[in-house]
Amino acid sequence: MFAKRLRLALLVVAGLIVGGALALAVFPEARDRLLPASNMRVIGQALIGGPFELTDHAGKRVTDQDFRGRYMLVFFGFTFCPDVCPSALQVMSAALDKIGAKAERITPVFISVDPERDTPAQLASYVQSFHPRLVGLTGSPEDIARVVKAYRVYAKKVEDPKSSAGYTYDHSSIIYVMNPDGTYRTHFAHTTNVDAMADRLAKLP
Ligand code: NI
């Protein structure tokens, strides 16, 4: 009786595992959206980030090298985003403000996935509304495609009749912490609260 039940339980568990694995294999977009955090950990630090060349909100061309020597707190999004981006940027900004002088070792960076609308001027007014040190980065569609790929970010243009431009972006909402040497360190979910983020940022070595 016991053995029979155990066998049944094992079968159910095996079925769930196979079903889950199949779903993730068949629907990569679902995987990216549902499992960004665990996915990133498995991929490991070497594969997230890397060289980029972009244009900052002052219109100046910059590369990843310009950010060396400080941690980067990086979020990808777009200025027309109605909800996720503003809340993530608010949490980032408040967390930095909360840790005082320790925040000076960290450069907050917002990289646009919507270079069509996010010109440097558009980014400038946007980033300044969140934090005086928040750096907005945009570029050509090719520049953005490269950095999106390097950071394993999911960003997809989708039709949106409610938007004046007729489109919006579905995008992943991970907040990355990159080391002063440019390598990946850790990440936060955009749902992280200010206190939790501030604690972890304050503990950076
Ligand atoms: Ni967004």
Task: Provide the fold topology.
Elements: H1 2-26, H2 28-34, H3 36-43, E1 53-56, E2 61-63, E3 71-77, H4 84-98, E4 106-112, H5 120-128, E5 135-138, H6 141-150, E6 155-159, E7 167-171, E8 174-178, E9 184-189, H7 194-202
Parallel strand pairs: 3-4, 4-5
Antiparallel strand pairs: 1-2, 1-5, 3-8, 6-7, 8-9
Helix pairs in contact: 1-2, 4-7
Largest sheet: 7 strands, mixed
Globally, the shape reads globular
- CATH level 4 superfamily of the largest domain: Glutaredoxin
Number of strands: 9
Reported by name, the CATH topology of the largest domain is Glutaredoxin
Q: Mean pLDDT, as a whole number?
A: 86
Main structural class: alpha+beta
CATH architecture of the largest domain: 3-Layer(aba) Sandwich
- CATH class assignment of the largest domain: Alpha Beta
Order of helices and strands: HHHEEEHEHEHEEEEH
Distance between the first and last residues' Cα: 56 Å
How many independent structural domains?
Answer: 2
Helical proportion, percent range: 40-55%
Low-pLDDT stretches: 26-44
Could you tell me the strand content as a percent range?
15-25%
Number of helices: 7
| Radius of gyration, CA atoms, in whole angstroms | 19 Å
Strand order in space, largest sheet: 2-1-5-4-3-8-9
Structural account:
- With 205 residues, the protein is of the alpha+beta class.
- The chain has helices spanning 2-26, 28-34, 36-43, 84-98, 120-128, 141-150, 194-202; strands spanning 53-56, 61-63, 71-77, 106-112, 135-138, 155-159, 167-171, 174-178, 184-189.
- It folds into 2 domains: 2-39, no CATH class; 53-202, Glutaredoxin.
- A 7-stranded mixed beta sheet has the order 2-1-5-4-3-8-9, with helices on both faces. Strands 6-7 form a two-stranded antiparallel ribbon.
- Strand 8 (174-178) and strand 9 (184-189) form a beta hairpin.
- It is globular, with a radius of gyration of 19 Å.
- The protein starts with a helix and ends with a helix.
- It contains 7 helices and 9 strands.
- The structure holds nickel (II) ion (NI).
- The site of nickel (II) ion (NI) has 5 residues, from helix 4.
